[in-house]
């Protein structure tokens, strides 16, 4: 069962919290985004109403409709948790959700179009943008000061911009990277 369109992954369920069906959540990002959600989509279960949410360091605990025992919460261990994009709380200016970056143009230092953000990967210490390029697909670390998310109307993201300080090859087509550089039989240092 795949998550519905227009949802954003919030994390995954870790296991029971208490004996009345609470379940701990490993949260990707800020745990506060979970605390006021009316519902979540749980992998393997579908949409579940949030009866109560509690902040826990470093994540949160959710009490979901239909999950009333420790065993019920245990059965959800490892399931991914999503929220409807429309249910997510508004963020302060300069902060954004991953779904707001998908579909944005990626611009070079001179403003030239390089590609489009297809997805965002949370790799732990650094987020990676998956970028569709004319020759294939590339990965772009979402890292200051080389990559800037340009705001548009209302402060929401409008484009991804590589700065003039970005190292050459920061965004490279995977096919170009695997292509041979030169004649393998040519002598080095010529």
From TrEMBL:
Q: Where is this region: Disordered?
A: 165-190
Task: Specify the signal sequence span.
Answer: none
The cellular location(s) given in this protein's UniProt record come to: Cytoplasm
- PRC-barrel domain residues are 94-148
**What transmembrane ranges does the database entry give?**
none
NCBIfam families, sorted? 16S_RimM, PRK13829.1
Q: How does it assemble?
A: Binds ribosomal protein uS19.
- Annotated domain remarks: The PRC barrel domain binds ribosomal protein uS19.
HAMAP family documented for this protein: Ribosome_mat_RimM (MF_00014)
What this protein is called in its record is Ribosome maturation factor RimM
Q: Which gene is transcribed and translated to give this protein?
A: rimM
